[in-house]
Design brief:
Largest sheet: 2 strands, antiparallel
Function: Plays a role in cell envelope biogenesis, maintenance of cell envelope integrity and membrane homeostasis.
Radius of gyration: 19 Å
Number of strands: 2
Main location: membrane
Strand content: under 5%
Pfam family, one: IspA
Number of helices: 9
Order of helices and strands: HEEHHHHHHHH
Shape: globular
Membrane topology: Multi-pass membrane protein
Number of domains: 2
InterPro entries: YciB (IPR006008)
Length: about 200
């Protein structure tokens, strides 16, 4: 799959979600006899687009990662509840649940001495076992921090602030996390040793 298509499938639904919310955040739209505020209308668009993006990804690659499947399930369930009950709290809680699930999965892998993060990212990021252990521990705490931050923002800030946090803030924080771990990657990379062996 081309990088452009992969990026489109990964971020396209999120960009459309943000665009629809910005366009309708101060309006109420009536569909099927029900009034929907902008945030729920954006969710109504986001859920099927996310399903379609994952279907295309599966059709093109023949596989979906555990993280992609978990995210898809949570989007469908919590997005569906948001639309069905006309209650934005469910879509706002979705990132919290996703990050808590990721943290729990990673912690379970550590407890079982299974390197699940390496299995998911090993091809893109060649690290030693010690490097993966450190990164996994840091990522567990990072996910827990994002879950707590999401709960704080959606409970105390406006819908606009939360949507910007969800669509832009979380991406920037994730990029910042991996950038901050660049020294770890440099210290524990196995790329040089593999090249020397070859």
């Amino acid at each position: 799959m081309s990088p452009k298509l992969k990026t489109l499938l990964d971020y396209g639904p999120l960009v459309v979600f943000l665009a629809v919310f910005v366009l309708y955040r101060n309006e109420t739209v009536t569909l099927w006899g029900q009034d929907y505020p902008g945030l729920i209308l954006a969710t109504l668009v986001f859920v099927p687009l996310t399903v379609a993006a994952n279907w295309i990804l599966w059709a093109r690659t023949g596989t979906l990662s555990v993280m992609q499947l978990v995210t898809l399930a949570v989007v469908v369930v919590f997005g569906g509840l948001t639309i069905w009950l006309n209650d934005p709290r469910f879509i706002k809680m979705k990132p919290t649940l996703i990050y808590l699930i990721f943290a729990a999965l990673l912690a379970t892998g550590v407890a079982l001495r299974r390197n699940w993060l390496a299995a998911a990212m090993g091809e893109a990021l060649p690290l030693s076992p010690e490097g993966w252990r450190i990164l996994t521990t840091r990522l567990i705490w990072f996910c827990l921090g994002l879950a707590a931050l999401n709960e704080t923002i959606w409970r105390t800030q406006s819908d606009t602030t939360w949507v910007l946090f969800k669509t832009v803030g979380l991406i920037l924080l994730t990029l910042g996390f991996f950038a901050a771990n660049a020294p770890l990657f440099a210290r524990h990379t196995t790329e040089d040793s593999n090249s020397d062996a070859g």
